[in-house]
Amino acid sequence: MVIKTPTGNSTTSPRIVYSALFVLTIFALTVYFEPFVYGLNMALKPASAPEAITKTELVQNVTALLPKPKPPSKQETVEAAVDEAAGIFAELAGKKNEINELLRYYRNGINELEEQIIQEMQKKRITSYSRGVRIKGVELGLRTIQRRRVYIRKLMISNLWVKSGSEELLYIKRKAQFDIQLVDIAGGINLDRHMKQLSAAIQKFRPTTEKLAIKLPDADILPLETIWSRIIKPKEKIEQTPARTAGQELLKQIGDGDFTKADLKAFQRRISTRLSRYRKFIKAAAKKHGFDWHMIVAQIYQESHLNHLAKSSAGARGLMQILPGTARSLGVNDIYNPVENINAGVRYLKTLYDQYRSIEGADRMLMALAAYNAGLGHVEDARRLAVKKNLDPDSWESLKKTLPLLRYRKYYKKSRYGYCRGTEPITYTKRITMYYKIMKRQGNELKTAQAKLYP
Description:
Elements: H1 12-33, H2 41-44, H3 55-65, H4 74-124, H5 129-132, H6 136-182, H7 191-205, H8 224-232, H9 248-254, H10 261-289, H11 293-304, H12 324-329, H13 338-354, H14 362-374, H15 376-388, H16 396-402, H17 409-412, H18 423-453
Helix pairs in contact: 4-6, 4-7, 6-7, 10-11, 10-13, 11-18, 13-14, 14-15, 14-18, 15-16
């Protein structure tokens, strides 16, 4: 049987094969050279090494991930400036001690040289300047005294600058500290003004070599003959008559050697002539806030000697010596108005008194008075220091030991509120206590006399 093949074009099949091979070749080349067209780039492309990162870029990247620090508030900025002012105040205190040491050294040296010159004069029987200046030892002594007197005058100028700077810094620092303590409970306190004053004072009174330099070329030099005449001039001795013992019994009863007869007489005179003007206002304010009015009188006397126009070098004014900024924060319109001044001062004392609710007895009042004088922050620093020294922080006797320590860098640099003239609040409370005792004693004597006259 014969099978017949279908008829057609015999070249069709090879063309299809060639076309398919051509397409596959093109596809293979495309995949090899341009794999991304088919999404094969990541699969076929060899992995590359990671790019190196610099230390600066690493720090920047880490910093960018960290939370940005919160800018300091106005109160924190002022507190930092107060701390800086306290540090400069302490530096000035150190400079003052150095200057006083130099002054003592030069003055003692002058006294020794004067004694040597007098001995030389007596030894060689010299009575005139013209003969004395010819002797080498005498002339050298006179010229040394001449130079030292110049140094002393220049040091006194530096000492005056240090003293004025200390007073101004203390005033501005205390005023700022007082307002900072009230900023959370009172409105209208201008912290920008405090910052401006603190910055100006810090710039002005920061001790530098230029500010404390002793410039001798422009000094007035005392002539040698004048120095000679002052040495040979006899010095008159004035004998002092002993003080009378009137009032000795009262001084013994109130119990302090620092309180003299003159202090007692001045206190009694001012109380008798001035207290009547303010007694009813003091009694009203004391009763309102729960204080013994005799204690308020004693504090007012210590602050202003019952002078409603009194003004301190630090700028405190009125009977209770309130600073202008503090007066505004307490709502005082006329700081010299006795009624407003008394009410504001007693109200502030009550605020401080309430800070020590956990303390009982006289210690509570003494701490409030110390805070009125030195600032609440310094009293708290002294209490924290008492704890460190295993003393009772609620005892005034403990604070009498720790407050003076805040004058020394070893202690105040670790305290929260810095340098404090810690002996001042101790003297302040001591005086008030003595005045209070006198007031109470005189009041009891008056009641006894009235009882005898009107039984």
